[in-house]
Amino acid sequence: MANYKQYILVCGGTGCTSSGSNDIIDIFNEKLEKNNLNKDIQVVRTGCFGFCEQGPIVKVLPDNTFYVKVEEKDVEEIINEHVIKGRRVERLLYVEPEKNEKIEESPKMPFYKKQVRVALRNAGSINPEDINEYVANDGYIALAKALTEMSRDEVVKTVLDSGLRGRGGGGFPTGLKWNFAKKANGDIKYVICNADEGDPGAFMDRSVLEGDPHAVLEGMALAGYAIGASKGFIYIRAEYPLAVHRLEIAIKQAKELGFLGENIFGTDFSFDIEIRLGAGAFVCGEETALIHSIEGYRGEPTTKPPFPANSGLFNKPTLINNVETYANVAIIVLKGADWYRSFGTDKSPGTKVFALAGAINNVGLVEVPMGTTLSRSSYGNNFKRNCFCEIGGGIRNNGKFKAVQTGGPSGGCIPAAYLDTPIDFDNLMALGSMMGSGGMIVMDESTCMVDVSKFYLTFTVEESCGKCTPCRIGNVRLLETLEKITSGRGKPEDLEKLETLGKVIKDTSLCGLGQTAPNPILSTMHYFRNEYEAHVNERTCPAGACKNLIKFEIDPEKCVGCTACARVCPVEAIKGEIKKPHQIDQEKCIKCGACYATCRFGAITKS
Amino acid sequence: MAKIKSLEDLLKMKETAKKNLTIRNAANDENKIILKVAMGTCGIAAGAKETFNALVEEIAKKGLENVVVVQTGCMGYCHAEPTVEVNEVGKEPVLYGNIKANRASEIIEKHILNNELLQDSIIGETHQRAE
């Protein structure tokens, strides 16, 4: 048994891996070996720390130093300074944007201080490829206790009492779902984990799978025991290769130790898990479509009922839950329903993982108790001081908060006036948005709400499976209308058309994808109608984002003729003699804004 | 790997696995006690490495979960190496000099476990640190 004295944890999440954390690990190992330190110091590749914006992340233990944006060339300095001489490498410490202070330890960072990590309890602190580290953190104890000390009913009751609601987005009570599946008649039953995360901007499930795969396996095994299933499938998209790889390792290790397979913990309960790769179609996140895909058919949804709990995979009773839901189960069984209820709100207990993105300083993964507000009312509407923003570190470039988009293509935008709303399933619904998978995209004043709707609708149109007419044709018509409006050809009656058609699509689509597709339009029209009106009535884009509606002009009074704008213009649309006012040829201008960003004299106007 | 067939076996496995992670778990402990061992050239020459290892082993032996050993640069007391500084939450750091490996157990036994200072080994503060 090696007795390490120091640990270097390197984030091995997809974000940090893509910015080179694997190479960093290799160089660390190589240099430690060269310095004869490899027996004293262990390099651990962990799951996502959540602080993706600042990656690659390197954390040194036991002194808990948190280094951000580490590059290959920094490794030597970390070893020479920190490891050998015990001095922190100042320049690699995280700088808190608001106070411009360097922060050395992660627990002191606002990003971590406000978080409560339940589903992400192990992500970023254990090596996900080593089952020992999961076991050291109470892994599989819940399963052992459930199998040897609890009846199936007791397990279901614990989940029911905890008030856990499905983290896939709809928020259906998990315990109720388990109860239906348990009561369903069938000789064979299945458990499915829905890991077909595909929302633009969402990566919670991926991070859970990458950072703590055993938590999901244990949750599934508990579900299997509770409902009487002996077989589980994880449906995961093939475009998550790292998550798939870690799951494969985790399943293998769990089987070797007997946590999966025949007669688990010496009981008569047997449970096995297989991975099924999906091709990455958004509609396959719909449970009926997902089931068809596992069966080998096209991933198209069917109407419910029958619900999968009664007739699902191969027409057998099937329990299907999301990754994050399963990741919560083991700790609930271990610590009890009351413990779980001590977080969150009455109707939405527990915590929720959000993928925080957009015009915010600390982009990344955060887990907060349900009911956390976007803003803390005592501070007023100053977004810089509110709770999410304390984690998020404020709006990027000192911008002004405009709206937050939640729930991805199924959700909507929430304006500044509702920043005090505690975020949970029901409140988001009441605001015309949705929890969805938990994507949270913060937008500043430079974002055009019509353009945002167009972005999401483009996504849904591309991802529609085409089975039902409202979704296949209706959404295309919506998109065409939005394109008309953003290009300056919209008419006032188009707004009514958007609303009417949007409502029809919501009411008549076959599955959740179609039923929620118009949400981005409807919610932005509700809160930002003036922006839509400006587009159709005045042919302007107040945010200055819709290219066809903006015009760049040079104020001859202010122009000194420095030629800087002409030099950056990619299409040579700016002409003029040196030291004399320049002009922009509107015909040639592609509205890229390069001249606007370059001019140091404020001579170029955008309207 | 042998199959784990009972909750007891699993708990045993957990204990072993946890021991390997003690230092890592302690890093997040709010009440952790930090033992800083000066590891400048002078410290290492005087045997600070052995002291460091002995401290780590002693902590593991006693099963202390909130005590971590960290190495630092030279603290400037080259004449009294190896030096060990004990940092407890809410208390002034205590600096000991001439702590060879064989005295590691003394620090753990007396200072950490019994709150008793090793009077004859304390180095008086001779300077102030800029914070």
TrEMBL record, chain A:
<dbReference type="GO" id="GO:0008137">
    <property type="term" value="F:NADH dehydrogenase (ubiquinone) activity"/>
</dbReference>
<dbReference type="InterPro" id="IPR037225">
    <property type="entry name" value="Nuo51_FMN-bd_sf"/>
</dbReference>
<feature type="domain" description="4Fe-4S ferredoxin-type">
    <location>
        <begin position="550"/>
        <end position="579"/>
    </location>
</feature>
<dbReference type="InterPro" id="IPR019575">
    <property type="entry name" value="Nuop51_4Fe4S-bd"/>
</dbReference>
<keyword id="KW-0004">4Fe-4S</keyword>
<protein>
    <submittedName>
        <fullName>NADH dehydrogenase</fullName>
    </submittedName>
</protein>
<dbReference type="InterPro" id="IPR017900">
    <property type="entry name" value="4Fe4S_Fe_S_CS"/>
</dbReference>
<dbReference type="Pfam" id="PF13237">
    <property type="entry name" value="Fer4_10"/>
</dbReference>
<dbReference type="GO" id="GO:0051539">
    <property type="term" value="F:4 iron, 4 sulfur cluster binding"/>
</dbReference>
<dbReference type="InterPro" id="IPR036249">
    <property type="entry name" value="Thioredoxin-like_sf"/>
</dbReference>
<dbReference type="InterPro" id="IPR011538">
    <property type="entry name" value="Nuo51_FMN-bd"/>
</dbReference>
<dbReference type="GO" id="GO:0010181">
    <property type="term" value="F:FMN binding"/>
</dbReference>
<dbReference type="InterPro" id="IPR001949">
    <property type="entry name" value="NADH-UbQ_OxRdtase_51kDa_CS"/>
</dbReference>
<comment type="similarity">
    <text>Belongs to the complex I 51 kDa subunit family.</text>
</comment>
<dbReference type="Pfam" id="PF01257">
    <property type="entry name" value="2Fe-2S_thioredx"/>
</dbReference>
<dbReference type="InterPro" id="IPR037207">
    <property type="entry name" value="Nuop51_4Fe4S-bd_sf"/>
</dbReference>
<dbReference type="Pfam" id="PF01512">
    <property type="entry name" value="Complex1_51K"/>
</dbReference>
<dbReference type="InterPro" id="IPR017896">
    <property type="entry name" value="4Fe4S_Fe-S-bd"/>
</dbReference>
<dbReference type="GO" id="GO:0046872">
    <property type="term" value="F:metal ion binding"/>
</dbReference>
<dbReference type="Pfam" id="PF10589">
    <property type="entry name" value="NADH_4Fe-4S"/>
</dbReference>
<keyword id="KW-0479">Metal-binding</keyword>
<keyword id="KW-0408">Iron</keyword>
TrEMBL record, chain B:
<dbReference type="InterPro" id="IPR036249">
    <property type="entry name" value="Thioredoxin-like_sf"/>
</dbReference>
<protein>
    <submittedName>
        <fullName>NADP oxidoreductase</fullName>
    </submittedName>
</protein>
